[in-house]
Amino acid sequence: MTPRISSLLILAAGVGAAIGISLWIGSTTSSFAELRHALLAPDGQVSDIAIREIRWPRTVTALAAGAALGMAGTLIQGHTRNPIAEPGLLGINQGAALAIVSVVAFTGPLPAWTQALLALGGALAAALLVFGIGRIDGRGGSPITLLLVGAAVTALCAGVVSAIVLLSEAALETLRFWQVGSVVQGYESFLSLWPLLVAGTVLALANARGLNALILGEDSARSLGITALHARSLGLAAIVALSGLAVTLAGPIAFLGLLVPHISRRIFGADYRWIIPGSALCGALLLCVADVLGRMLARPGELPVGVVIAMLGAPFFIYVARRRKAVTV
């Protein structure tokens, strides 16, 4: 068994352990007997409801959003050749926020599923706008062009969002809770949008060979039969699907899409055929663990998972920056 396969199996085992701990720990800690009863022979007891209807849905949401963000972050860092790039740089988070506050300002507070659909639509529209403008340069969207256009679209959306929330108290309240990032309300959306995760994962894995070639340069990639436009378009589709799904399920989770690719590259090396599945497992594991920590650190309440990820991610990234003078993507 190769070291890379062993690493994937260890990460998968870690995800399995995180699922068990997430079902075990909530605002209170269930006993092993209660956990077994809820999973194998539920009969409507309070512990059954807590485990099956509260902890299980948020665990699934954390796993899906974490895996999607991990893969999306890896793809965007690879395609832009920027080790500090993340999905937020494509305007995805601010596009989702703009879609939500624009509607809430006129209609008032909305159900969670409606907010999810608006977030998905806004995220997809912002990403497509960035890549559409970025391709005008005729080179299939060069890394520097995508980053500049992404920064411009992000700033534009953020400015409009700020103007709207100044004029609408309902929009301000909705944005305040949504922007923190949480996995509490995303399960119903996941039941409808899981094909997006499957499609995004397939596209990401299919993009691995092209991304490996592009790292060598466009001329080298062309000699290997890889067209830059085709590879970047495939990457675009995967990034849009995965990032849009993640922001829909859990809101704008900062740092995860930035942090996970670095961890995966340190484990699996420079081959994206291994980095991408490794990033999916790392992202799922980190977000699930962060959700559990959020429940434990503020009992009987809880910390939003976005806050916990920021607390974990910032020190780690400072450590990486101090230990390594350069990062290769």
UniProtKB/TrEMBL annotation:
GO annotation (BP), single: siderophore-iron import into cell
Pfam families tied to this protein: FecCD
Specify whether Protein biosynthesis is a keyword of the entry. Answer: no
Task: Tell me what topology the record assigns in the membrane.
Answer: Multi-pass membrane protein
The regions listed as transmembrane in this protein's record are 7-26, 56-76, 88-106, 112-134, 146-172, 236-260, 272-293, 305-322
Compartments (UniProt record): Cell membrane
Q: Which family does it belong to?
A: Belongs to the binding-protein-dependent transport system permease family. FecCD subfamily.
Give the protein name, as stated in the record: Iron ABC transporter permease
UniProt keyword annotations, A-Z = Cell membrane, Membrane, Transmembrane, Transmembrane helix, Transport
Record flagged with keyword Transport: yes
- Which is a Gene Ontology cellular component entry for this protein? plasma membrane
Domain of life, per lineage: Bacteria
One GO MF annotation is: transmembrane transporter activity
